[in-house]
Each structure stands twice: as C-alpha cells, then as structure tokens.
Design a protein that fits this description.
The chain has 166 residues and is of the alpha+beta class. The protein has one domain (13-135): SCP2 sterol-binding domain (Nonspecific Lipid-transfer Protein, Chain A, 2-Layer Sandwich). It contains eight helices and five strands. The chain has helices at residues 13-21, 25-40, 46-52, 94-101, 107-112, 122-133, 137-144, 150-161, and strands at residues 56-61, 66-73, 76-79, 88-92, 116-120. It has a five-stranded mixed beta sheet. The radius of gyration is 17 Å and the shape is globular. Residues 156-166 have low confidence and may be disordered.
C-alpha cells in the first residue's frame, strides 16, 4: 500500500485575492458540519467540549482567502457571522491544514516552523490542541464507515491504494 505525502505548498497569490472577495459563510458551514459530525459520533471528548463551550474560534486559510468563524454553544458548533472577535485563531496555508488532518505534521512542529500561527487564549489553544491530539483515527474511520455511502467510497478508495505483487 502506498502512502501519499502532502507536500508543503502555497497557492498562487491571486487565489487568495479572489477567495477573500467571495462569501465566507460556506467555509464556516462546511467546517461546522464536519465538527458536528465527529462530535455526534462521540469522537471528540465530551469533557473537553464542555470546557470550550461558549468560546469563539477562527480558522484562516491564507493562500485561499478563506475565513471560518464559529463557536460551540450548548454542545453544538455554530457559525458566527459578522466581525466577532475570536478567543482563538488559527492561521496557515492550505498545505499545513492538510498535513495536520493527515497527521503528517503535528501542530507544534508547524507552529515552531512558522507555518501555523495561533493567536488568542493560550490555555484554550492547549485545550484544543490536546483534544485534537486525542482523536483516535481508527475510531473515526470505524464510525464513518457506518454512515450511508461511506463504505462504498472507502471500498473504492482501497482499490486504488493497493499495490500489485511484483
């Protein structure tokens, strides 16, 4: 089985200029849908979610011009529209976020290599980092495989990642 490595890259500057002029609400909705899905599957620890309830977060993707601001209220992630000031903000290029999601890089490495900026409440940042570090991807994959359509996509993906014997 081959492993795909996400390279460090930055999209051309015009992409961010165009992206910044587009409505930002789709980014927030997409992000909170994913967060609410993993929350409802029990992947995110309930005790940590209780600690961050009522806090506002912002994720900025520099090279796409995308900004997503959201909050956790009553245990549900919700978008925040307008000029709300976040308690915690993450800023990076798309490649850094993809590397984080793929567990190819950890937040500390990206932060110390100046590829990820974290601003705001330091204690909240550590809480979020520890929560994300605690996510068990094998549990996530097993939980997602119960969703309609995922098994078909997973099986389709597996057929493309297998290597034939030489």
């Amino acid at each position: 089985m081959s492993t795909f490595i996400i390279p460090k890259f930055a999209l051309p500057g015009f992409v961010a200029k165009i992206g910044a002029r587009l409505p930002q609400w789709p980014h927030a909705l997409s992000l909170i849908c994913g967060l609410n899905l993993v929350r409802s599957l029990g992947i995110l620890p309930a005790e940590t979610l209780a600690e961050i309830d009522g806090r506002t977060f912002r994720v900025t993707v520099l090279d796409t011009g995308a900004v997503a601001t959201f909050t956790l209220q009553g245990g549900v992630f919700k978008p925040v529209f307008g000029k709300a000031s976040p308690d915690l903000q993450f800023t990076a290029n798309l490649s850094a976020y993809l590397q984080l999601l793929a567990r190819q890089e950890d937040p500390d490495t990206l932060f110390f290599n100046r590829q990820l900026t974290i601003e705001g409440d330091t204690e909240l940042g550590l809480t979020v980092k520890n929560m994300l570090d605690a996510v068990d991807f094998s549990t996530l994959r097993a939980s997602l495989s119960r969703l309609p359509g995922f098994a078909r996509l997973r099986d389709h993906g597996d057929s493309h990642t297998q290597t034939s014997p030489a």
